[in-house]
Design brief:
heterodimer; A: 184 residues; mainly alpha; Four Helix Bundle (Hemerythrin (Met), subunit A); B: 102 residues; 75% helix
Chain lengths: 184, 102
């Protein structure tokens, strides 16, 4: 009993640290004026989200999150930011101040809407305790579910990734202006 | 389930989604808009995974992996656009990129 409650306190502690760093790095991504620092803050956000996935017994998704996001997506972001160079001329927010105020109000309204919708729809059913098996979220279990029950989604995902890769290559190499083509 | 209830995870996901939406609406740099979009997608992923744990249903985790693949595709195309804009020596300010406006 004492051991179980100590484990509970430990999980709460890890959760509080992960949740705080998740929100803090999210705010940092939005507020840093240098996009390079924003991309670095996104790594912290993804890492703390991976910790939360581990607490939710989604081991495979946590590993895929670190590999795909922190390993590939953020590195691609950093390369492109380095390629583009510092862009000092882009200000933090655009338009007159009422537009910024409207954007903040719209984001706040969206947040309130989500909270109200989730709370009204599922407030009663979210509190009951659930037990999951030891294999829930492990790579073997994910592989079985993915390749047996959701094979079509798996294949469609691969086609989407292929099309996006081809589109990225076309966007990155093709230019219609011959004078710019010569200088490259 | 040890630790916090699933409602706490959903609250974090909602706040993170709000932060990402704020970034998409307020920031003007195309790269930061893309980064904020990643925050929104990750908030959706957190909600999917916490509800998958809650209902003991694997489809939520599969959906989260599919969202991850779609996010990678979106970054691929979005960064391709940024590179193409940079090659034509156009500004990366989303307010000045209004040529397609009807």
């Amino acid at each position: 009993m004492i051991l179980a409650s100590a484990g509970n306190v430990l999980v709460w502690l890890v959760w509080v640290v992960a949740a705080f760093s998740c929100l803090a790095s999210g705010v940092a991504v939005v507020t840093f004026s240098n996009p390079f620092y924003s991309a670095l803050a996104l790594i912290g956000n993804l890492g703390s989200l991976a910790v939360m996935y581990l607490l939710l017994s989604a081991e495979f998704v946590a590993a895929a999150q670190v590999l795909v996001y922190a390993g590939a997506v953020v590195v691609m972001f950093l390369f492109v930011i380095a390629y583009v160079g510092p862009r000092r001329e882009t200000p933090w927010s655009g338009g007159p101040s009422w537009q910024t105020f409207g954007a903040v109000a719209a984001a706040g309204a969206l947040l309130v809407e989500i909270v109200v919708a989730v709370g009204m729809q599922a407030s009663g059913s979210l509190s009951h305790e659930t037990k999951v098996g030891a294999d829930f979220g492990t790579p073997a279990w994910i592989g079985r579910v993915f390749l047996v029950d959701h094979l079509l989604a798996f294949e469609i995902t691969s086609v989407v990734l292929l099309i996006a890769a081809v589109g990225g290559v076309i966007l990155g190499t093709h230019t219609r202006r011959p004078d710019l083509e010569k200088t490259v | 389930m040890l630790g916090p209830n699933v409602a706490w995870y959903l609250a974090i996901a909602a706040v993170l989604f709000g932060i990402g939406a704020l970034g998409v609406l307020v920031r003007r740099n195309t790269l930061v808009v893309l980064l904020s979009l990643e925050l929104m997608l990750n908030a959706g992923n957190l909600a999917l995974i916490s509800l998958a744990r809650h209902w003991h249903n694997g489809a939520g985790q599969i959906f989260a992996l599919a969202v991850m693949a779609v996010a990678a595709s979106e970054v691929c195309v979005g960064l391709g656009l940024v590179v193409a804009l940079n090659r034509r020596e156009l500004s990366l300010d989303v307010d000045t990129l209004s040529e397609l406006r009807g």
